[in-house]
DNA sequence: AACTAATCCAACCGCCACCCG
DNA sequence: CCGGGTGGCGGTTGGATTAGT
């Protein structure tokens, strides 16, 4: 399931993310937040485009992300919302905490679409018609943007960071340079990376995968600028509990 | 065991909306 | 209002894995 690593004409790396790159991205975002995705790779020491970094973070590296093992309830919610909204994956994902739009989209195409087609062919014309009418639309509504979603959580984070002492915008470039040097130092000493980062619990079964633990003092510094909704959105207790969970088998 | 087809999903691409000067 | 920069979204693809012959 990996794309062959390659480089585009700008020297930006494409293809599968390496554990090394994941470490760098996690380390940077947990320390400084995602203040600017396009500038971030430069300061984080990544030869990736900002889009790629954002995607990687949103779909796999951010806290509380869930992988695989869809429950019947989740499937039902997806089927129901898809019938109402069509291919508005981000809106659907907003109703399923821990699920990314990309993963829901994949899950839909690989398994739920068949179920939906089966239901449609065995239900009234009206119902199947509503599914067809809803699909393919892509419009942002006000309520959609105000919905509590992981995306909005991150947006909140950005807003918070912009106005806080933790904002990289207020940090000097020397500080970013220091970050990179610190990362290299920690990497060489091994101390920073020794504890597995288990947000994606699939890491736990991979011997080639060692990602850093999260220092929540850095992720959620005790700042008056950081709103309660943002802090609670990460559900730290749940996050820590994931360390005890065993890997759920893929496929 | 070897080969082929089907499945799955991580990642890319292009477009659009929003923001700001 | 306009244009550039950026983030976000949904469609699509590359290729590894799994199932079937």
TrEMBL record:
Its main location: nucleus. Residues 119-136 have a biased composition (Polar residues). Pfam families: Myb_DNA-binding (PF00249). Gene3D superfamilies: Homeodomain-like. GO terms for biological process: green leaf volatile biosynthetic process. GO terms for cellular component: nucleus. Residues 9-61, 62-112 form the Myb-like domain. This is Myb-related protein myb4. The gene is MYB4_14.
